Amino acid sequence: MSERPYVLLSCAMSVDGYIDDATPERLRLSSPADFDRVDAVRAGCDAILVGAGTVRADDPKLLVRSPSRREQRAARGLPPDLTKVTLTWSGDLDPDARFFTTGEAPKLVYAPTSTAGDLAVRLDGRAEVIDAGDPLYLETVLGDLAARGVRRLMVEGGGGIHTLFLTSGVVDELQLVVAPFFIGDPSAPRFVGPGVFPQSPEHPMRLEELTRIGNLALMRFLPGTGRG
To answer: How far apart are CA 1 and CA 131, in angstroms?
Structure first.
């Protein structure tokens, strides 16, 4: 890969590695103090990426919440909000999802060749749909984002997206918050799924920072495999 953004992957999980439970309502693993920290991290990035499954399940806005941070971005000549990015393989996205209807920054949807054409018609006026190859090729996505001026990309899930980015060796920084409880339900979604990870026992990540946020633990890892 000739050029790509700096990739920061952010996630909150239970002690046993779950990012949600199996109930219809979204489980809050974080705290107000940590939500504010995440908002500050967002404000320092150029784009934010989630998978289409997260768009469907959580209907997130993915906006910078703090008015002062929005003003600071504008003072630096940046849009108040980040460019929103999602990846979809099936093309199953609702044009009325808040991902598309909130914020003034661009919305980018990367899809495989087989679904990009029809999806572009359905999302006309709501987002730009980019053909990322067939199958969808992550290097194409990151290269296109770099060409659009995205220097720092925040990746926020879900588990399939985490697994894809980590197994592809393109994560430069992992910010992992651990909540002080267990889920214990094998049907609930996990932080990552099965895969061959470059960050193995022989090639471990480096723990760069460990911070207490109330009753939560923030661990900042540098995988050390993204940029050679």
So the answer is: 18
